[in-house]
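Q: Joint fold for the lines below.
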Amino acid sequence: MKERKIGTAVVCAICAFLIVSAFFAKDFVLYDYHMNVSDYHYAKTEEEKPLSADTSLWFSYGDAGKEVYYGVSAKVQEESMTVYALTQTGEVSVIRGNENPIRQDSLGHFIAALPMTEQDIDGDGEVEKVYDYARADFGLNAFNPAPQRFLTEDIPFELVFAERKYIMVYYGNEILKGAEVLVTSYNGEKKRYRTDEHGWIQGLPNKDIREGFTAVYSPDGEAVYRMHYALEDYPYFSVHFWNAHLPLVVIFALTGIGIVMVYLIRNRMERNNPAYAIYSRERVGIYPGTLHQKTSSKFLFVRWLCLFAGMFLWAYAGRLIHQGQTLNEVSIPVFSCPFNLDQVVEVPCYYLSHLPNLFGRFGADFPERNMAYGVMFLATTLFCFIFLGRILCGFLCPAGLLQDLMDKLRQALHIRPIAVTDRINRFLQPIKWVWILLFLGFAFAGGDFCDICPLKGFTTAQGGYWTNLYLGGFFAVVILAGSFFIKRFWCIICPMGYLMGLFKRFNLFKLKKDCTSCTECGACYHACPMRIKSIYTERDKENVQTVDCMMCGECIHKCPEDNALSMTFCGKTVYKSSRKTFMSKFSRGKEE
Amino acid sequence: MPEQNGINERQRELFIRKSTRVAASYLKRAKELSELPEAAKPFFDVLENTYVNNVKEITRLENTSPSDFTRCEAELLHMADIQKPEDRKSIGTLCVMVPAELVYAAGAMPVRLCSGSYTAYSIGDDYIPRDACPLVKAVMGFGKIKALPVLDNCSLLVAPVTCDCKKKLAGVIGSVKNTVPLHVPPLKKDDADTEVFLKELYRLIPVLEKETGKQVTAKSLAEGINMVGNAQYEMSEFLKYRRLTPALMSGTQVMSVMNAYSYMPANLWAEQMHRLNEELKLRLSQGHFVSRKTSPVFS
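A: Joint structure:
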């Protein structure tokens, strides 16, 4: 009884700490990149004019981040440049000359303009009026999917990066539809494009946008508008890319310390345990040659493959499969941080934890796009919740992969796990409810869930995006150290996982049990990372899927009876237990 | 005639002669039932060795003068012990709850002692409470008359306390045999029960180690698990052939083959079983059945 009282007190303390500290999340800084625009360095470039610049002025960036450069052609006077900057209040501030335009309230969107010149661009013998512009989008706010437009009379021709995918063209402060635009790519090639009814340059590849391009538009042949667009974007394996991994290094270093601490504390606590005397003689592991452990299970192999593919999809594929795909709006509920705004498929955790923002993604001026995005988001999220359910937890979630890898690491180091017994599982449930409360409700209390999210920044950092980590980073250390000793520790308390499990009756993937084949050995219960007991104690019903079951298939793999447990997809059996698979572990290996 | 532990010498000799004769006749009949597979013969040899073979040990009595026409040699009849390596100790187990893997890991050999005989039962009846089952009384009886080397040569008896009778046995047989009880929880549902059982096993390990003088290490435990697992694998393969109708092998012979597991090291049993499985596979492919299609099946 005394144990129970101490346990209850500890759990209450943990829950209270979670809720209270959530409001002070930004005070615990794990890693801050200081990506505010005011931290950027502004200077004239020392490099030559890039191939993509068909204008007389351009912007470029330093390799390591936080550096913005402007450049002008040889015959241009720098003092004649005018820089327009968007500010936080919504106004456009004007800076003349080559003075540093970066102010405290700058948003990171700059358009530089030169006075009109008269040149013969198209070689027809007549001079045209040429207006040269250059645009730079950099800093934290450049990640905003809503199009950031200047819409000022001083800039009649404007290019805007919209939805992280398209270039919108404005002329005379209105969307330019159905017009022909000449684009110079990053490598100097020129190609003609047309704009569509949204004003997007139709068919412009992702690479061209990201590496800098120039768009040239002439409404009547006499006036030519040229704008060079430089988006702050860094390719893979640049210095900026490696810098993005620094928070992960910090997290893993702290995790290592945490693991060692837990290991030593556990050794200390177990001194009176008779088992300790035996374990202390040696470290327990699987010795080669003694136990023929490798049962070939195609199911588990497929599962590992899917997990790795999912991680690749969310972390790295964003730059490879991107422009113009509707796929980007499909949302699949896993915990891959959507701070990587360029990821191939969307992840609902941001909007589920910031429900008030759901229909406001692109800003107040684009109600149709907002509605289209919101509807698609809800439809795909609900589809995945209802029909796919928690198989995504077992097969696609990058956080799941991370935890499984920590578990494998523990096995490689021959360290005993911590068993989650009934008692510990009961004490973890209130923590799960606190996470659900924070996940869904924190936005309504005025907080930002992303600051306490323990999984923020894993797939973003891998993709090379700089993400600031606050209190959530420390929680990540706890989660990783916990999942080293306890298999799939986060999954037991994951809020999104619980929400996905609620619709288990409608899932296409189901877990079934044949209670007459079951001999009640309990192997399934001991194999289950979610510690589901009912799969072992159920004696009558066929359907044993619970809210917690994440369809990892461990129970089926360990079941020694034929067909006692099986996983079905739309009624067809996908994976079922067999005695032969179980027993063949102990065959001599000669014949089977 | 001096009385020895409840029965005298003459009665003991009679008991041994009768038991071995009865055992021999039953085993002979079992062997002669429908065609015995070749590979099953060694199993019967083991059973015969345990229950049929007996040796006469002749000891010269001291302190008799040559003119004394009473007996100067004492003939003591023994039954033969099971065949096991000289340096291996045997640990007697009752019930399946004692993990054989653990006993192998400690360097010993487990021997299953659940069996019975009516004579031994009546001897043990004097020591065990009235309402206990005949099996337990027979074990006690054998312990007292010291006629069964399988039991007598065990250095330790591990008795899981899973029924009331064995609870009583564990207490009483301590007078003739070194016994250690194993407290197995009745239900497996709560995690607390599993933890209790685990603690019991950890309590058993030092006792086993003290008997054999060898340590239980992870490696030896892995080897023990592998050995018993292999035996279980061969058993599961055997059962597949056992299930077929018409039958490939007579049921009594099946029982005898499985009975031999109690008196053999698991790896030898598994090896022999492997050969038996191969032979049954051959029989199946040849269509060589030992019963008719219309024979009733008791399963």
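Q: Anything notable?
A: The first strand of chain B starts at residue 3 and ends at 4. The radius of gyration of chain B is 22 Å.
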